[in-house]
Write a structure and sequence with these properties.
This protein has 190 residues and is α+β, with helices and mostly antiparallel strands. The protein contains 8 helices and 3 strands. The chain has 2 domains: 121 residues, Arc Repressor Mutant, subunit A (Orthogonal Bundle); 68 residues. Helix 1 crosses helix 3, helix 2 packs across helix 5 and helix 2 runs parallel beside helix 6. The termini are far apart. The mean pLDDT is 85.
Length: 190
Amino acid sequence: MLSRNFVLLALNAFGGRISGKTLLTKRIFFLSELLGQDLGYYPHYYGPYSDEVSSDITILKNLGLIAEESFDFGAFNENGFEVCRYDYRLTEEGQKAVIWLQGEYPVDARRIEQMAKRIQEAGSPDYVDLSIAAKAYLILKRSKKALTTEKIIHEAKQFSWRVNDRQIHNAVEFLKKLNLISIPEPVPAN
């Protein structure tokens, strides 16, 4: 399945509307991990990022299948860039495309819907918490071995990611609910 079809079905599976590009891309990240779909994610400041998914969002927008709305908050970040949020929703044409994709790829569409539901049932973190969970997962995946929560915190600092202990603990709980990880329990001292 083409990655842009995956993106379109993912947006539909999350209700056809998502507030924030970071939230959209992180939800797609977790869907791709749960479904074994390589969408080219790599480490980035806000957690795993995919040029492919970002490009697909632009293509779907240009094709009129999704609509993008920006909301200016009238503030600027430390680099002088304006702070705004981009929200995405399926258009009427996008909804027709989803129906077509569901007919063409019924198994894939059903699996995406099931995994989206699983993500929502694991908790509905905001974009910040979901980004941190994605960062924690990426650390675990790259280590190729079980890590304690404390080791994940240490590794996050090596990436210069700003996360606190509580955020990592919440992220680990979210990942456990998705059955993406199991964290070894610390061995009690005698």
